[in-house]
Specification:
The chain is of the alpha+beta class. The chain is built from 9 helices and 18 strands. 24% of the residues lie in helices and 35% in strands. The two termini are 25 Å apart.
């Protein structure tokens, strides 16, 4: 059964501000950037590469309101991204968190058992000082701690402005990262939730077992950890026993191990956002019309037009604090791994438990098409 509490039981070892950015390793950043601009409405922001004195990789920074995606491609087989991409394909390599002090965040995490990837490093240019450090988390994913207090530049030292030709795209009005979900192996969910509680000082506030998230064929378990200020929320999924292969098992097979499964992005008007994204060519999971037959009875009075939600296939769920609206894209790459969730919160701090059944059945239809159910 689901467990959820808003009570804070963690220990704030260091000050977390918010998600800073998400960095992806990709095979061809120039092409990927075009996709995210045309499909998701991102704008060019910053760049590093040979033109800025960086010889072994390029990184493009895209921006939309308070949402930042960084796409990095190696220019040499010696760059660590080359081996990473060979194993996982395009995906999230770094879930970066903005903190009050990257040194304190890194050193305190390491003191509680985290493995350091990059020690605290301050770089400086005419725009000020920029701090960054990194630790290892599940699979080959890392968390970087970013300190920007004394940096007034565009992005970071070594980056210059990114100027690209205009791309026709409707503005979806995406605001910020809401949460990022990680998939881990069998029986590792509690190991990693304990890691975030012990190392980060986060608290667990939602737990779902296989009775909450299941169909006749497959199931999963999930737990959600969060920072004290609610800005950083990270669900962790693991497979559960079922008659056939679950979506988590399929992910682990194709990703060749644990990793970030999806990024949930907030919007203030999901009807406008989904309308724009569909017009831009974004492909979403199918939701059966039968889902909407009893929607009013399940969620009560809402502000949105039910017929419009049905037309756009938007899901709705309510809890004791309010309601939320959400919709999930199909996988964004040929490997059925990473996807995007669009979410609008109207009081609810939940994750759409009432939608799990419809969501799972939709995902299983896609799995069946791929021969992976």
């Amino acid at each position: 059964m689901a467990f959820m509490t808003n009570e804070w039981t963690g220990t704030e070892h260091f000050k977390v501000k918010d998600f800073d950015h998400v960095e992806f390793y990709v095979g061809n950043a120039k092409q990927v950037v075009h996709f995210y601009r045309s499909a998701f409405g991102f704008q060019p922001h910053a760049y590093c590469g040979p033109e800025t004195g960086v010889r072994d990789h390029v990184s493009y920074v895209l921006k939309q309101n308070n949402l930042f995606f960084v796409f990095t491609t190696p220019l040499s087989s010696a760059h660590p991204a080359t081996e990473w991409l060979s194993k996982h394909g395009d995906g999230v390599c770094d879930i970066a968190i903005q903190v009050e002090c990257d040194v304190e965040a890194h050193d305190s995490c390491v003191s509680r058992g985290a493995v350091s990837v990059m020690p605290p490093t301050v770089t400086e240019d005419e725009s000020g000082k920029f701090g960054k450090s990194s630790i290892q988390t599940y699979g080959d994913t890392i968390h970087s701690f970013i300190w920007r207090e004394e940096y007034k530049g565009l992005w970071a030292p070594g980056f210059g402005p990114l100027s690209l030709p205009d791309v026709p795209s409707e503005d979806p009005g995406l605001i910020r990262t809401d949460h990022i979900v990680g998939n881990v192996e069998w029986d590792k969910m509690d190991v990693w939730s304990e890691f975030y509680e012990r190392v980060f000082g986060f608290t667990t506030f939602v737990r779902f077992d296989d009775t909450d998230i299941s169909t006749q064929y497959s199931a999963l378990k999930s737990i959600v950890v969060r920072s004290k200020n609610w800005k950083v929320m990270m669900p962790i999924n693991e497979p559960a026993k079922g008659k056939k292969k679950s979506q988590i098992e399929e992910y682990l097979d194709f990703n060749e191990g644990p990793g970030a499964q999806h990024i949930a992005i907030q919007t203030g008007d999901i009807v406008k956002t989904i309308s724009a994204l569909r017009a831009n060519g974004v492909d979403f999971l199918e939701v059966p019309d039968t889902y909407y037959e009893s929607l009013s009875e399940r969620v009560g009075i809402i502000d949105e037009d039910l017929e419009k939600l049905k037309e756009l296939k938007i899901l709705v769920d309510r809890d004791e604090e309010g309601y939320l609206l959400q919709l999930f894209t199909k996988p964004l790459e040929d490997r059925p791994t990473l996807f995007i969730e669009i979410i609008q919160r109207k009081g609810s701090r939940g994750f759409g438990q009432g939608n799990f059944q419809a969501l799972f059945e939709s995902i299983e239809l896609e799995q069946e098409k791929r021969g992976n159910l």
